[in-house]
Amino acid sequence: MVPKEVVRNCWYVEGLSALGSPANQNFISNAGFIVTSAGVVVVDALGSPALAERLLGEIKKVTAQPVTHVVVTHYHADHVYGLQVFQALGARIIAHQAGREYLYSDTARLRLEASRDELAPWVDAKTKLVEATEWISAAQPLQVGDTRFLIQPVGPAHTPEDLALYVPDSKVLYAGDLVFRNRIPFVGQADSRNWIASLDRLLKFDAAVVVPGHGPASTQARQDMEMTRDYLVYLRKVMGAAAQDMTPFDEAYKAVDWTAFEHLPLFGAANRMNAYNTYLLMEHER
């Protein structure tokens, strides 16, 4: 875990392009932090309490300022299992109110139970899901010391509760999992139509740097956001045509030309699942 400064006072740590495991402590996503004159704003809390503690240690090497806020881009496990560490420090946790439904769902409970087995000892009986201090439903400015932020809802897309954080004076966008860089996105149960529309909204920020939810930060922000967008558009095109023609999924998947994306990390692990979920979504949208 090595913090990288993308512009002055705007930092991030980059998770591995891998599936979560005990060997990597579930360090498979990014987290950001912005140092202000009155405290540190953290973006996401990583995938285990141990990782959050490591992140805090790295922040302390950069600044003596305390962590005052944590902005949660969404409630997927690899981004929130470290939240309890920041809650214990008294940091204000900000998330979109649509995250409440997931937080108290059987899906979240069962996922945590499974993670306690699959990611032990880093996720264990003491690991818990943490509520936001403040639930928001619309774009919201945030001023911490000398630094202005804009917290921008961008879901439902990757999840119903997606948020992005923009630092206007630095032109840095922390995009969460709306942007995956140098790897195949995880689509899951995403609303890919709205995800594409949300990426179009993010492009209007004209950010100089984008910190994605996964992969290295980008100084070619438009190009990298468009890569995620193009992948989603292609999924919807090919799986939509198959659903329209009522072609069985296995047959349709084999017939698609995936050469534009198959070189990307995690293609083998994620692409077929992404295609299948998109096929089901397109059947539903017909």
Characterise this structure.
The chain has nine helices and twelve strands. The strands form two sheets. A seven-stranded mixed sheet has the order 1-2-3-4-5-6-7. With 286 residues, the protein is α/β, with parallel strands linked by helices. The mean pLDDT is 93.
Task: List its traits.
alpha/beta, 7-stranded mixed β-sheet, 286 residues, globular, 9 helices
Poorly predicted sequence stretches spanning 5 or more consecutive residues: none
- Overall outline: globular
* Number of distinct beta strands: 12
Our Rg estimate from Cα atoms comes to 18 Å
Helix content: 25-40%
Number of helices: 9
Strand content: 15-25%
Structural class: alpha/beta
Strand order of the largest sheet: 1-2-3-4-5-6-7
SSE order, one letter for each helix or strand: EEEEHEHHEHHEEEEEHEHHH
Distance between the termini: 45 Å
The overall pLDDT average reads 93
**Major pleated sheet:** 7 strands, mixed
